[in-house]
């Protein structure tokens, strides 16, 4: 097989053993890699009803058939597991150097099962897997961990994916860091922590074969040139903090825990950050676009990566306008290994509860947890990572924290299925309402372009949401980063061409599109198996009941009829039942007979379909 | 000919490894980063440097080689390796101050940059999307060069 190895490394932490299993070509062609392959493996390795933080929940890392070749920005990997926040599929996508090493070590995916009895780290040295004690790494952030492991292995090229104290303490939205936070959303870091697995280090030194090497080279270089032309034409990278002001102008910037949708103190621009805090711009392997901007709070201090969603969640959502405080909070999230969006959301929920008197200074260890207090923000991030005091409650995420506190605080717990909402107000940005409500993807890897979405209207978003989700599934499975899509003139046909050149497996653009649809149906199948109900596809009550309190969008609420109609339209465009279940014929049409077969055997009566 | 070598502007370089991919594809016909002649070193995310042969005037590698496998091609001011003589002992690797020589495990001989003299332009310079690489040409006159080595 070209470009793929057809190999999956299975690591059993309980027995401290590993083995290699074959991945047949048919499976790879159907599910491509990344999110698709990872979800397929999750279905196989997770028993129905597995608790996310139990040893039985497998933690899966999957790269793609393009990783290790010159294909642009193709070196990412997906981390797939059951989310400790939602109990459904968590499929976060991470950056590339670790993934490139995984591929070069000779594997397409790694499945980690069981749990160690004391902290360990795993070192995958090409074909050899070592288990090492990790007691000395406990309490360390990802950089310190990577540094210590590189020193131990004596090789700077060893790439390390690790958890910080947040993951060790099973903060439900802990993430897994390699270089900078990327496998951010959904809580995969907590799953890794529950296994007492501090890090996975990889040294991969193999060559990657390609079916048509010169063809991949030519097509890739052509795409690099287009990316360069875009940068030269002033096209800004869409993930950057520069989105804050346009989104604020559109009244879609969640402010003070979604009480408002614009922030009067919003003044943070890329120019300001570049002039005062920017240290370096770096790229993932084979990426011509280089989106990772590294900033420093103070000269010589730790560097942090900052994107729009982190800025929105730890800034306006908490009423904070101090750039140093926001950067400090991001830096602490990075050290503790926690998703910035869920962290910011949980703090904003606590701030509102504090202002409404449900939490007092007694609960907060004397901290004045009012909106806009920068010291409070920084102190609380730290306490969440350590699960100290109030941090212990917030480490559970807004769904569980509000259920525990009660007294009406559920109303402003801004999550869908337990996953906190990212930086766009669905009351004004209607397309996001549907997207957040049905939420098949946990981490948006595409981005907002002001011209792209008709932000205030809900008509036609159902079909476009399906198409968007399917393209995203292709991109997150082929692992071509969503942020460079704009340099493809026709993403599906060019991606299909690249895939065929790299792997030698012929796939047409239509088949590739169908693979995206298949992957999304697979995710939904798994979610249904794990107890998904129609009522889970919904948004927090605030968005329907609490009108926006100020700004141009003052008074705006979401109508439940409107959202209902959007969701029904979406189910219909997917060919699902009105209850959101998948008919057997649909799975058959997508060539998913293997899944139907699995459903018969071992799902203990969990229902999958109705028709 | 004057001394020339690949030079990297560290502020522009993003660590994308595209130069490594292109070099190995060009020289070895495979995506094999171990066999690239240029290596991107990134001990921490913001600290990036590139290791590639600088064609030093005093060539410690040539002096170190116990089998006289390395010599200088005066016409191009590049290194010449007589593959049959190279035993892969790694002495040149040890003495190179730039970490620019690597061992090819498959042939057990060493590899280093040859400035792509068989191409119109060095391949790595051609592909670098950040235009971080350039061909540095020494202004020092040939005649003032120390002899020997
Ligand atoms: S291609 Fe250019 S930017 Fe990328 S690693 Fe090489 S020198 Fe740096
Ligand atoms: S291999 Fe190293 S020591 Fe030899 S000329 Fe090149 S840079 Fe100098
Ligand atoms: S000049 Fe040619 S041989 Fe030397 S590093 Fe660049 S691509 Fe490789």
Textual characterization of the structure:
- The complex is a heterodimer of chains A (611) and B (149).
- By secondary structure, chain A is α+β, with helices and mostly antiparallel strands.
- Chain A has helices at residues 25-31, 34-45, 96-104, 142-153, 165-168, 188-194, 213-232, 244-249, 270-276, 308-314, 323-336, 340-355, 374-386, 389-394, 397-405, 430-438, 461-478, 491-503, 509-529, 542-545, 560-574, 584-589, 593-602; strands at residues 7-12, 17-22, 59-62, 77-82, 89-94, 109-113, 120-125, 128-133, 159-162, 176-177, 181-183, 197-203, 278-282, 292-296, 303-305, 415-416, 419-420.
- Helices cover 40% and strands 13% of the residues of chain A.
- In chain A, the strands form 5 sheets. Chain A has a 6-stranded mixed beta sheet. In chain A, strands 8-7-12-9 form a 4-stranded mixed beta sheet.
- Chain A is globular.
- The relative contact order of chain A is 0.13.
- Mean pLDDT of chain A is 91; it is low at 449-454.
- Chain B is of the alpha+beta class and 149 residues long.
- Chain B is built from 4 helices and 8 strands, in the order βαββαββαββαβ.
- In chain B, β2 and β3 (47-51) form a beta hairpin.
- The longest helix of chain B is centred in the first third of the chain and has 11 residues, at 18-28.
- Chain B is globular.
- Classes of the chains: A alpha+beta (611), B alpha+beta (149).
- The A-B interface holds A 68-70, 97, 100, 104, 143, 156, 179-180, 205-210, 213-214, 217, 221, 224, 227-228, 279-288, 290, 292, 294, 303 and B 14-18, 21-22, 24-25, 28-35, 41-46, 48, 127, 129-130.
- The site of one iron/sulfur cluster (SF4) has 13 residues of chain B, from α2.
- One iron/sulfur cluster (SF4) binds next to α1 and α4 of chain B.
């Amino acid at each position: 097989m070209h470009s793929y190895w057809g190999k999956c490394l299975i690591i059993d932490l309980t027995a401290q053993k590993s083995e290699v299993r074959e991945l047949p070509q048919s499976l790879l062609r159907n599910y491509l890699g990344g999110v698709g392959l990872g979800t397929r493996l999750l279905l196989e390795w997770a028993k129905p009803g597995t608790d996310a933080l139990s040893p039985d929940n497998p933690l899966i890392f999957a790269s793609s058939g393009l990783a290790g070749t010159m294909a642009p920005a193709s070196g990412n990997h997906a981390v797939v597991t059951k989310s400790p926040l939602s109990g459904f599929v968590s499929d976060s996508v991470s950056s590339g150097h670790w993934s490139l090493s995984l591929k070069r070590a000779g594997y397409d995916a790694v499945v980690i099962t069981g749990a160690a009895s004391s902290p360990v780290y795993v070192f995958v040295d090409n074909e050899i897997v070592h288990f090492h004690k990790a007691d000395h790494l406990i309490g360390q952030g990802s950089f310190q961990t990577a540094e210590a492991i590189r020193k131990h292995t004596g090789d700077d090229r060893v790439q390390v994916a690790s958890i910080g104290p947040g993951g060790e303490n099973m903060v439900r939205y802990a993430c897994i860091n390699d270089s900078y936070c990327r496998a951010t959303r959904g809580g995969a870091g907590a799953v890794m922590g529950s296994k007492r697995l501090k890090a996975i280090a990889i040294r991969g030194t193999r060559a990657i074969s390609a079916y048509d090497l010169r063809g991949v080279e030519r097509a890739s270089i052509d795409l690099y040139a287009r990316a360069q032309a875009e940068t030269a034409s002033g096209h800004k990278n869409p993930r950057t903090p520069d989105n804050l002001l346009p989104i604020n102008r559109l009244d879609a910037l969640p402010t003070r825990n979604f009480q408002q949708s614009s922030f009067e103190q919003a003044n943070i621009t890329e120019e300001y950050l570049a002039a005062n805090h920017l240290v370096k711009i770096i790229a993932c392997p084979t990426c011509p676009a280089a989106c990772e901007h590294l900033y420093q709070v103070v000269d010589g201090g730790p560097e942090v990566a900052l994107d729009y969603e982190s800025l929105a969640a730890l800034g306006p959502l908490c009423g904070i306008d101090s750039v140093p405080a926001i950067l400090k909070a991001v830096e602490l999230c990075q050290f503790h290994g926690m998703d910035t969006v869920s962290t910011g959301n949980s703090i904003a929920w606590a701030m509102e509860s504090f202002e409404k008197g449900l939490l007092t200074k007694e609960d907060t260890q004397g901290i004045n947890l009012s909106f806009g207090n920068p010291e409070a923000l920084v102190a609380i991030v730290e306490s969440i990572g350590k699960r100290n005091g109030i941090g212990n409650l917030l480490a559970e995420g807004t769904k569980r924290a509000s259920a525990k506190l009660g007294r009406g605080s559920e109303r402003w717990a801004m999550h869908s299925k337990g996953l906190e909402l990212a930086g766009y107000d669905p009351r004004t940005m209607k397309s996001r309402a549907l997207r957040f409500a049905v939420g098949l993807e946990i981490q948006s890897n595409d981005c907002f372009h002001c011209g792209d979405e008709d932000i205030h209207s809900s008509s036609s978003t159902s079909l476009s949401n399906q198409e968007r989700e399917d393209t995203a599934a292709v991109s997150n499975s082929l692992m071509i980063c969503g942020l460079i899509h704009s340099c493809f003139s026709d993403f599906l046909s060019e991606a299909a061409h690249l895939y065929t050149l790299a792997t030698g497996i012929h796939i047409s653009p239509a088949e590739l599109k169908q693979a995206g649809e298949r992957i999304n149906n697979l995710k939904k199948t798994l979610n249904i198996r794990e107890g998904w109900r129609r009522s889970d596809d919904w948004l927090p009550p605030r968005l329907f009941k609490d009108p926006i309190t100020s700004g141009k969008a003052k008074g705006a609420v979401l109508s439940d009829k409107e959202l209902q109609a959007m969701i029904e339209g979406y189910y219909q465009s997917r060919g699902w039942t009105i209850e959101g279940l998948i008919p057997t014929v649909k799975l058959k049409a997508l060539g998913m007979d293997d899944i139907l077969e699995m459903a018969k055997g071992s799902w203990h009566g969990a229902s999958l379909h109705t028709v | 000919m004057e001394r020339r070598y690949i030079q990297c502007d560290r502020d522009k370089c993003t660590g994308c490894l595209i130069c490594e991919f292109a070099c190995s594809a060009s020289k070895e016909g495979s995506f094999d980063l171990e066999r690239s002649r240029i290596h991107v070193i990134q001990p921490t995310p913001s600290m990036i440097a590139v290791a590639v042969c600088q064609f030093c005037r005093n060539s410690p590698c040539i002096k170190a080689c116990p089998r006289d496998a390395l010599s200088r091609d005066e016409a191009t001011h590049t290194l010449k390796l007589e593959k049959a003589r190279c035993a892969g002992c790694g002495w040149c690797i040890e003495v190179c101050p730039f970490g620019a020589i690597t061992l090819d495990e498959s042939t057990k001989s060493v590899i280093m940059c040859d400035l792509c003299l068989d191409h119109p332009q060095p391949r790595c310079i051609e592909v670098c999307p950040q235009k971080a690489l350039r061909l540095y040409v020494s202004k020092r006159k040939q005649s003032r060069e120390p002899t020997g080595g």
